[in-house]
Amino acid sequence: MGKYEPLARYLKSRPDDNWNATFSEIEAKLGTSLPRSAREHRAWWANQTNGNHSQTSGWRDAGWETRDVDLRRGLVRFERSGHSGRASGGPPMPMTKPDLWDQARRLSGIVDRDELIEAALTALIRREAAKGLIALGGTMPDFEAAPRERPFA
């Protein structure tokens, strides 16, 4: 069992999609102190996909990523990433809620979850309203047709 396995097990067991943790809470889950570099270097908390970083492998293999590291206050936010349980080379697994959030953030550039929800709902309402108008023989409300050509007499 690796040093960060207790943290990985704890993260896997959480029913929610995020955990705002103090360094002390993390140490309690680990049963040991974090290394000095965890308190001094933001890079220690990076979600690296290559290299030999056992702490990163612990939370990433459990399906979590770190966000919003505050070294001064000793805080880190973990968010479920949806990458756990994927067999390499196998068929892609269906998207989970965390996968959908991540994809929506990447596509829209909107990081705030409430803003993202508002933008998605607005787009959905506009799309459904446009479908209704088209079914009635109308056009999309903000559609502007190109000017018609008039033959010269």
Gyration radius, rounded: 23 Å
CA distance, first residue to last residue? 88 Å
- Our count of helices gives 6
Order of helices and strands: HEHHHEEHH
Mean pLDDT reading? 79
How many strands in all? 3
Q: Which spans have pLDDT < 50 for at least 5 consecutive residues?
A: 83-94
Task: State which percent range the strand residues make up.
Answer: 5-15%
Structural class call reads alpha+beta
Spell out the blueprint of helices and strands:
Elements: H1 5-13, E1 18-22, H2 23-30, H3 36-40, H4 54-61, E2 64-70, E3 75-80, H5 97-108, H6 113-135
Antiparallel strand pairs: 1-3, 2-3
Helix pairs in contact: 1-4
Tell me what you see in this structure.
The protein has helices at residues 5-13, 23-30, 36-40, 54-61, 97-108, 113-135, and strands spanning 18-22, 64-70, 75-80. With 153 residues, it is an alpha+beta fold. Among the domains are: 5-84, no CATH class; 110-135. It has a 3-stranded antiparallel beta sheet with strand order 1-3-2.
